[in-house]
Amino acid sequence: MNELIVVIGSNDGIRVFNGHLGDSKKFYIYKVMRKGGWSLLREIENTFPEEKVHGGPEKMKNVLSLIGNVDILVSKKNSPNFKKIAATKPIQPVRVLGETVEEALNAIVENFELLSSMIEKRRKGFREENIPRLGKPS
């Protein structure tokens, strides 16, 4: 893999949303390069920020349909759906310690080889439930 498609939840495009990914106002989708650097591909309004049952399968299904085909989901916090995705989907959930989108993207670049390997295993059906924590606290 020479690039990873990464989704980061944020309300302002600057700071990573300080809650569950699916509760952020927007999803920012980036292409992150193996050699470093990234580019914003698109910004998507979260039309499903409310849910009837916390961690409900309907919310996960709706959010995944909004963001499309991606490699990595980035969040500050675990959620029931993040854990379900780790156990059942080819998408790799990741928790970040930094506060900003830039810090999160830098953490992805710094851990590109590890994440790329994890995604390859997921695509082959191996679903490790461990959700890596990346970066340094701000």
Brief overview:
This protein is 30% helix and 25% strand.
Sum up the structure in keywords.
138 residues, 30% helix, Nucleotidyltransferase, domain 5, globular, six-stranded mixed sheet
What secondary-structure arrangement, pairings included, does this model have?
Blueprint: E1 3-10, E2 26-33, E3 38-45, H1 57-67, E4 72-75, H2 80-88, E5 92-96, H3 101-110, H4 112-123, E6 133-134
Parallel strand pairs: 1-4, 4-5, 5-6
Antiparallel strand pairs: 1-2, 2-3
Which range does the strand content fall in? Answer: 25-35%
| Unreliable runs | none
What would the average pLDDT be, to the nearest integer?
A: 90
Q: How many domains would you count in the coordinates?
A: 1
> How does the helix and strand content classify structurally?
alpha/beta
Structure overview:
The chain has helices spanning 57-67, 80-88, 101-110, 112-123, and strands at residues 3-10, 26-33, 38-45, 72-75, 92-96, 133-134. The protein has a single domain (3-134), classed as Dinitrogenase iron-molybdenum cofactor biosynthesis domain (Nucleotidyltransferase, domain 5). The protein contains four helices and six strands. It is of the alpha/beta class and 138 residues long.
